[in-house]
Batch of 2 targets.
Target 1
Amino acid sequence: MTHSFPLRVYYEDTDLAGIVYYANYLKFIERGRSEWVRSLGVDQGRLRRELGIVFAVRRIEADFLRPARFDDELTVTTRPATATGARILLEQEVLRAGERLFAAQVTLVCLTDGGAPARIPADIRQRLMPALH
Amino acid sequence: MTHSFPLRVYYEDTDLAGIVYYANYLKFIERGRSEWVRSLGVDQGRLRRELGIVFAVRRIEADFLRPARFDDELTVTTRPATATGARILLEQEVLRAGERLFAAQVTLVCLTDGGAPARIPADIRQRLMPALH
Amino acid sequence: MTHSFPLRVYYEDTDLAGIVYYANYLKFIERGRSEWVRSLGVDQGRLRRELGIVFAVRRIEADFLRPARFDDELTVTTRPATATGARILLEQEVLRAGERLFAAQVTLVCLTDGGAPARIPADIRQRLMPALH
Amino acid sequence: MTHSFPLRVYYEDTDLAGIVYYANYLKFIERGRSEWVRSLGVDQGRLRRELGIVFAVRRIEADFLRPARFDDELTVTTRPATATGARILLEQEVLRAGERLFAAQVTLVCLTDGGAPARIPADIRQRLMPALH
């Protein structure tokens, strides 16, 4: 149920404090979400083109626990927690050798191209949240 | 008590959805915090070099309310809420023509160069949080 | 004939070497180009929506001369050099207190939405390159 | 002699034109250089800590040939071309399914921590440029 995605820290990710710049953890977990969705056979580009829907982050609660550094090999984990008709709550973490560096609760909403709330199509919801079906 | 900082949305800030990429709001509010601190006569570089302390974001709760777009003129507001010996809680928002697009509660901690928690020096705390003194 | 645009270096711009990350100079000069175009009364959004054309960078030759640092106040200068039917060559620099830190020759091309080369509309060309008319 | 490094295009890499933002190709090739150096057994962190030297980009000539898009699987290639005492010239490309999207000539210089030019240590030079020895 938990998806894992590996990544490496490069120069672009660091700041003058010698550690990963705080906003970049949001990039890391977005990569994790993209790979999680892909691994379930959901094509975000096709959702947008064919159904006119996108997933957007509506809320995030994030704890910055320990700093990641240049050259670190990190793992992003993604675990679906709950879902309603138009929302999905995910638990995401960034780990280094099993140690939690960053943890977030991410609320995704399903939107039309125009930005209005939309119901998550039932088959997509079932792919993303199999345990709830 | 509320500090305001203007910024413009450039190409670099947008993504293929035609709106500001979600992680970039964290860049925007970090610029706001840097200008807020500067406006109070606190020099982050000197704190680091002379006192060996830095402020780091420990936690963030953020709501993405409406999308910002290319060329938008935005305002970042920063308002100190509470402070303890080693922590400061800030309320930050990103507005467009008075409309809230993004709102966050940001917990800052004071750390030594080595990453250990440190007390915020009294004079710095008083500059950042005058209403509490 | 030379457009100037001021900017400040924030945490997001730096890397672990304590200086501005090299790719970020390309962000800085893109902000400078956006403000230069705006200052001439050209609206990039309208060009895209109404005429279906965009300007894209086709080539860049860039010299990284001296490092910029956190908190630096920089100036981006933009000067049109030459133009042909579908191309514009710009000279851009990043300066700190008059000292050149970065210098680039940037070749812009005019493209249709589909990515095909397009002639620059005569009135736009005249606004961008008045000295050539 | 040519090092290859695969990467995926994520949301963070794109802009409102629906393609990879031009500055991000410089991030991509920097990741390629980091992996190339690592593959040769050279540890950038140790060079900095033990020998007090870093490699910095001094000049880049870059052609943006075709746009990369969201979800694209790209390859970054890195090939050392020539080296002198303190400089290395690299040829780097970004490819999609064998098609060149981006090509650059990158001049690296060896610097001391203080930013002064330094000779590349002979053993490092031999690792990076074996064909020249």
Target 2
Amino acid sequence: MIIVHKYGGSSVATTEKILDIAKYLGKVKSENNDVVVVVSAMGKTTDNLIKLAYEITEDPDKREMDRLMSTGEQQTIALLSIALQSLGYDAISLTGRQAGIMTEGHHTKNRIKSIDGEKIKGYLKEGKIVIVAGFQGVDKLGDVATLGRGGSDTSAVALAAVLNAKCEIYTDVDGIYSIDPRVYPDAKKISHISYDEMMELAFLGAGVMESRAVELGKKYGVEIYVGKSLGEKNGTIITSKEKMMEEKVITGISVNENILMVNIENIPTYAKNVYAIFEQAVNLGINIDMISQNDVLSEHGSFAFACPKTEKTSLEKLSEILKEEFKDISVIINPYVVKVSLVGIGLISNTVVAARIFKVFAENNISFHQVAASEISIAIIVDEVMGKEAARLLAKEFNI
Amino acid sequence: MIIVHKYGGSSVATTEKILDIAKYLGKVKSENNDVVVVVSAMGKTTDNLIKLAYEITEDPDKREMDRLMSTGEQQTIALLSIALQSLGYDAISLTGRQAGIMTEGHHTKNRIKSIDGEKIKGYLKEGKIVIVAGFQGVDKLGDVATLGRGGSDTSAVALAAVLNAKCEIYTDVDGIYSIDPRVYPDAKKISHISYDEMMELAFLGAGVMESRAVELGKKYGVEIYVGKSLGEKNGTIITSKEKMMEEKVITGISVNENILMVNIENIPTYAKNVYAIFEQAVNLGINIDMISQNDVLSEHGSFAFACPKTEKTSLEKLSEILKEEFKDISVIINPYVVKVSLVGIGLISNTVVAARIFKVFAENNISFHQVAASEISIAIIVDEVMGKEAARLLAKEFNI
């Protein structure tokens, strides 16, 4: 059996922790498993590198950012390989390029295009523990390319898919919770969650895993274990709906603070204008999250969307471009909001649940700016100051 | 004209310094030059990475050490490229592999086998400032390979050779001094020095540049400028003897404290015994520096050599081995010595100069333990306490 392990930044933050992981991997290997390990950069390494770049300029070149950010993982793979070899295990480190991870897309947010797993399989056959740098691959120009947020999870799940392996994600939380325990202390850990629910939770900013990694798991049927301790298996298993024993109405609630709202007002609300906004946003590589259009009956209406706070510089560019195209519009960026989201298979065509949600808002006098619903989730933009309170009230209402 | 600049670790230690360099490079570029820049890792980055590896084990795998140590330069090239682009200059960063630097040899001390300069020339033609990671290349397995001590200087000189370019090394000292100003405050900066003299000085521990980079410069006729300030050209030019306008008798004096003397006494001084000593020293990987044999006329004489203090552990092993082979010998290790060296083309077959040197020792009652002379240098082992005084007196005598 091939097992792909993934260790995040806090799990490899010190050489002591790296040695502990090496010991555990040696144990797993000695139980007749073929072991592939994906690691992130140590602790706050990536954040510190990003900080250096922003000391220089507010708008660093993205190809160079990929180069810069990809160094942290190269350090961890080398150190973990050194640790394993010092314990007497045969190990080899591979960069994304060496592991055959080809990417496409834009620098700092590339997608995995393909993985040639043959090289890794060859090393596994030689009895080696194979250590792969997470978060990175190589693009068609031969440049290192990073996979954006949660990229190491994506690397691990993609490798597990290609190698037909199990995937175990080790992180600094001991599993997936229905709601952040810091927001709601009575939060419960979930033992099994479906890919779809997890994707919604991840997309909504629950933080433990990025949705794209889960999506990949769903696509290729890779069962993903998420947990903390080395050895004890008391984390959360992300799997297909069919394999789950029972379902709750609401599985999880998240509060995402990395969000801002953009209102574009006094714009002729024709489809072609909405398209023009989107076209420019795509050119600038802006990740748009929730979209709503108001006052569609008047000739000049307003159009709103939400996007991550980190897009602020690109948004300002967008604003300039749009103001040139549409003379009369005003673009208002409101960063003082958060997004409260509820996820659960129980939301599928269940208006009763939606009604319960809005009742909580009404009874507690919490106003909201925007609402968006997918098949299994509802997201609501509220003022920053009300975010946690709203989440607590909802958690209590749905007993999660 | 193509100019290769090289900036060492202390020159790129902060983002502020990187921005200053970017500004200067932009100026050089705007004066109609094609600019290639080689950079080291920021400040103490490499040292800190090495420390992490040694926290794990005393004997880290060398392939993985190369991977680990090579990340620092990748960070600097990305940051410098970001800085140049933020100032409006077109720039691109290249790893050693991307710059076409092929290596051979052993991990952590590779040599440059060849450089394919076409890729760099292509980018220069597009008007780009090309930034290359120093200290690294790629071996035939496709693994990153580092060049050992002074590796970034070697990268810069080798690139200048391939590109038929000038080479300018910027460091934290403002040029090559005839003698360490901390030893002799009146020390003068050398405006021109020959490759051979510089190699001797480097070998003798003068520190500013490794001898291999200078050797490469000599081999390919690359004129090397070494200096500190950005813009002011008041450093030192390392060039061929033929290009030097005038020669001084003595160009430089160094005091090397990393030295100890080993006396092997009461040993039959036959060639085969001397060979036996050398054979064991080679087996133990001891770097022997100066060698002298005394009392060759008596049957039991003595044999002395000098070597770096860092070889102490290996020397103790050597002592044990020799005592088994030659029962009556005594091995005396004296660490309380320093080596004072004088370098200068004027020393070539010039016994008058040698006489002046020994006159200084005689008149000031400084005794010495060992003397060794090469074509353009004389090295003298004296007691530690007399080292600096001897250097000062010699500097005064030769007015350097």
